[in-house]
Design a protein that fits this description.
With 335 residues, the chain is an alpha/beta fold. The chain has twelve helices and eleven strands.
Length: 335
């Protein structure tokens, strides 16, 4: 019986060893194939999903950076606008794309607020991975010229005199909604918060006088301010003197602690080979360091933020936690 058992055990052990060798060989082959694929990348155009309508801040920056990135990668970078569902249509399309390096998505700070507000078919922290930061963005409160207040302090006084009259618009990013809500809650101002599907349609309604004010980013609103079609009420900067509105009232001067900024960054589907992520990061940071790009970004009131993938992903996780706490404190719910 002992001999039979030893024979059976030896056969099983031999079978297990053959299986282990086969698995290891398969994994090694897959790794080699992935490495070969990554070395050959890119050999066709790359799709860059923008989860917002054309003409908004994220779209403007993507169209500025895409040609330079394409030149460095040796392939076209094609902009694919996928707006809707609080930007979740575009993020989900990217999250469910093959992780082969041929799909990228523009992420903004609002990406990490969505999980706190919606039931999603994807997890932005698990299904998408950050490549690197693009820009940090000032937030500016702009108004139609016919709106009586000329700064945020006057908005608070106006809201006390005429409760429920002033309309504060936001689009694209929940971070901008949090800015309007900060006026309403921390400023104890009875204003109406109006939501839009993107910053571009919100801006169009502001220009038409259909809303009174909105939180925006300078690169889309600055041309209208220079042309006299809008006026600046305040910025959420930490200090005065930053272009393009160095003399604007700081929001924290009217509402204590009111400082806020947002960001844009580049993401790819999780599982994208690290060698591709690293190559994208190198080329992206090189583009962000070009003097012409730096000037255009700074002139728009933004700052480039070249970062490693690890540092960028750490920042994304930090804001996921931080904005989640703000949303819960404000009691914000998705419509």
């Amino acid at each position: 019986m002992i001999e039979r058992f030893c024979g059976w055990f030896t056969d099983r052990l031999a079978h297990a060893l053959r299986l282990a060798v086969l698995v290891c060989a398969t994994l090694a082959t897959m790794g080699i194939a992935q490495a070969v694929h990554a070395q050959d990348w890119p050999n066709k155009p790359i799709r860059w999903i923008i989860p917002f309508p054309p003409g908004g801040p994220a779209d403007i920056n993507a169209r500025m950076l895409a040609p330079r990135l394409a030149e460095r990668l040796g392939q076209q970078v094609i902009i694919d606008n996928r707006p809707g569902a609080a930007s979740n249509i575009g993020y989900e399309a990217a999250a469910k794309s093959p992780p082969d390096g041929y799909t990228m998505v523009m992420g903004v700070a609002g990406m990490v607020t969505n999980p706190h507000l919606y039931r999603l078919n994807y997890d932005p922290l698990k299904d998408l991975q950050g490549v690197g930061g693009l820009v940090t963005i000032q937030i500016v409160l702009v108004a139609h010229p016919s709106f009586a207040p000329n700064n945020l302090s006057e908005v608070l006084a106006f809201a006390k005199q005429k409760p429920g009259v002033a309309r504060c618009a936001w689009g694209a990013s929940t971070v901008l909604q949090l800015a309007c809500e900060t006026i309403r809650l921390d400023g104890k101002a009875d204003i109406v918060v109006v939501a839009y599907k993107g910053s571009a349609p919100a801006l169009n309604d502001l220009l038409g006088g259909h809303v009174d004010m909105m939180f925006d980013v300078p690169n889309s609103s600055a041309p209208h301010v220079r042309a006299g079609r809008l006026k600046v009420l305040a910025t959420t900067n930490t200090a005065k003197g930053q272009p393009p509105f160095p003399d604007a009232q700081l929001a924290k001067e009217a509402i204590q602690g009111f400082e806020m900024e947002t960001w844009q960054g580049l993401f790819v589907p999780s599982g994208t080979p690290q060698v591709i992520v690293d190559r994208l990061n190198r080329e992206l940071n090189a583009v962000l360091a070009e003097p012409e790009i730096v000037k255009r970004v700074n002139d728009a009131g933004l700052s480039t933020i070249p970062m490693t993938p690890a540092a960028f992903n750490e920042m994304v996780r930090r804001d996921f936690d931080r904005y989640g706490r703000l949303i819960r404190a404000a009691g914000i719910k998705a419509d």
